[in-house]
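Archive transcription. Copying these from loose printouts into the bound notebook so they stop getting lost. Printout 1 of 2:
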Amino acid sequence: MKKIFYFFLPLLLLLGCKKNEYPGNYPGARISPYIAIYDVRDLYRGNDVTLSKENMAGSDKITGVVVSDHSGNNLPAGLLVVQDKRRLAELRGISVNIGADAAKYVPGDSVIVAVEGAVLKRVDGILQITGIPAANVRKVSSGNPLPVNRVPINLILDNPDKYESSLVVVVKGGFNPLPAPTDVLVGDKLINDGFGDLTLHTEAAATFAKNPAPFSANFYGIVFNTVGANKQTVPQLRLRTGNDVVVLSSAIEVAPVLISGFMSDVIGGDGNYEYIQLMATRDINFAATPYSVVATNNANASTPVGYPANGWATGGMRTYKFNLTSGTAAKGSFFYVGGSGKLINGANSTSMAGSNWIRAFNYTTTDGDGFGTKTGGLLANSGNAFGMAVFSGTNVTVSSQPVDVIFVSSGGSLFTPGPPAMGYRIANTDFYDVKNPITLEEQPFYRSGSNTLSFAYNTADLGYFNMLGGIYDAGLGKWLKARTQANILLTKTSTLDKIEGEGATRLK
């Protein structure tokens, strides 16, 4: 009987509870008055939406930080642009049309906007909240920090709605085509960051409209959408003031040689069969203008151990050099450096002897040109990082900066800030920056500052050629499409078109 009584007691207590005392209905609980901008934007499905507590889940306000600045006369008139990260830590922005009073607010102002009864709709391509009197906006504080939101252009192009009405920075942007010395910002111009082309729109009345168009800069601005010719959504970037352009360089630096691929792991033994594929961005006579290629292997057993005190010139089992002092390469053509086997995929595979080999010798029996101990594995197959770099001239020292460089993986003793700082110097490439493009701090080594990107290892002993395909503009001196790693699985009978054909690096 006791067991039966204990079984029914919770049920009797539950049935005896008043409705407002049921655990699912907490006395005093309130719905937040603030709805995330993410959720407001999600309400729009192509038709105008009148905002109400019903469709905003009981909320009636938005809150966020202002990013708009109308002092530069370059933003759509009347739009107060705010952003928040209230939903899933996802940054979203929205434009609120309050008329002339929008100019009273500046970036960093924190505001609360009562939006119940307003209409969410697209006007000239921009999703905005309309019908809001200026009195519905209340400033809570000012001077709030705005986090730097670095966004590659391809992400904006792929999802313009996600970035609309938010503050972004396009890093290392340059104009495409290259501006003339007399070109200024006014009008619609394409900027490219190595990941795509985006329209930079500058009004004729903008206070900075006649500022010079820089060669390379960081562009801070707000993304607004426009309606394209086929009624598709087309994003554009609008600077707020002239200070939104941070010039990085006024000089064109063209890399004369690019690393476009490599074979680090053939089917079978690797010794004397590894090779590096490179591309000339101009006609080169190596006898008149010599270069060198250095590979680094940072396996734990490679000596000397520890951080590379002499950088790329460390030698031993850590770095190995090829001098390129004879032969020629035409602009846009591939050439090769590596083992004297000159076969596409190891022993008994297709011969590449007819290709343009600028330097090839048996690195299993011969030390490198100037430094580097003979080795059975020039390029690693797994584990810690390995890399390769191209240098102007053949005298590579601890202070030499390459003209191009890549790394695979990130492990090992690669960099220490010291003092003294030790590491492998990098170049300004699609992956690396000698100076941090945001903070402008010096970061001359791989793994220092923002220089953390690398390619990945492939499964060992299967015969993958690592194709690093991208588009390089030798006129602009920059990558219009950054290199991406395509793993081309070769056989013993594969032909040259597999590594030089579709998807390979090319010049514009």
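Printout 2 of 2:
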Amino acid sequence: MRTLSNYYLKTDQFSKSIRGEAHLVIGRKGSGKSAIFLQIRDRERSNSKNVVLDLKPDGYKLIKFKELILDFLQEGTFQHTIMAFWEYVLLLEICYKILEKDREKHIRDHVLNEPYRKLSELYHAEGYETEGDFSERMTMLMEKITSEYRAKYGDDQGNRLSSQQLTELLYCHDVKELFQHVKNYMKHKNTLWLLFDNIDKGWPTSGLKHEDLLIIRALIDATRKIERQFHKSDIEVNSIVFLRNDVYELLVSETSDRGKEANVLLDWTDSDLLRELIRLRIVANNLDEDLDFEHVWPKICISHFEGEESSQYLIDRSLMRPRFLLNLINQCKSFAVNLNHPLIQADDIRKGLAAYSTDLLTDIGYELKDVSPEIEDVLYAFIGNKHEATDEQIRSALQAYLGKDELQEVIDLLLWYGFLGVRLSDLDIKYIYNFNYNMQLLKGFVKKMNSKVIYTINPAFWEGLMIEG
């Protein structure tokens, strides 16, 4: 986090995000969402006139809040309550950030002094607690709402609350007055940034449900509403929510107005772009910044491994995800350092790949669990298998492991995560990233081949599963 700016690869997705053209940044785990989050945060808050909220909600606490609300409210009221909750949380956090940022400055600035004191009085009304980080403040607010509900309505279930009742339940501030003072104060600032990351981290462990998607949808809608309200007063607001691909796909499938939100996809398909990412990290070690990859890569690694160019060999086993590629290279480097090798040698690559492959099985297992908990360990169905198999052989292995007949959805997931690829010819094997992550196109190729389709297991998993290569 501290040194990333020294070698960060500024992609087109980053440029669109920093220009405020994206409201959603979507990518798989390890694709670089948090890197964009950090770069925007650090760059924008270096300007003292900007107000930057870098928010990371606690997914577990959101689940508990959802369960408490869901137990007592009908879905229509649940949806409205979550939306109102996010709007209120965002307003309080904007206020908190302003007061924190100008705590010293307003004393010396006569223009800010009076607006600051008034805003502070409103924010701290009713003894509102501001200790801890964002997650802790949000938790205190959740607990206040649930205790207020039980105090007023007991344990009655299926209630449909009126707008007035919701207002009384949710708010401990005069929201209209607070919002007006925040807007007035922001006229002394430049840009307001609302950055949400990690909202889907480790959430949920039992698979995504309809209500989980409502919470994410409500957050996105709340940020857009805040933007519109501030824009009416000519205050620039940019909001970005960072989401995993699988969560976004489910969100889109349940949303009637698809494509409404401007988004950028962090899907990596170009090997040369990944090489540039590695090159920037190498030259950051006091080397000439203008050196190209062909000159810097031999400084840390042998040029070829098992007849292949070594960097391409490693990239082919990274599932085209920057974090995975960095992990793989670091595993190889660790063995080289421990054995006093001046460069990463062939044995270091073999050992590094074995360690990486085992870790990768766990990582992809967690991703599968988030979407479909019952197939978390499905990759182990292929232990000791050959690296290629017909459709019938794949289904047989899955059926023996899972004990069920409906397997097409499982196969689709294995294709989507890059575990399985498709052999198009003797020398042409394609994975999801070779189809620009277009699942429909990949499934079209599979359907066209019909029963003659040959699946191949990604070589990144061979070592971990003892696959016969």
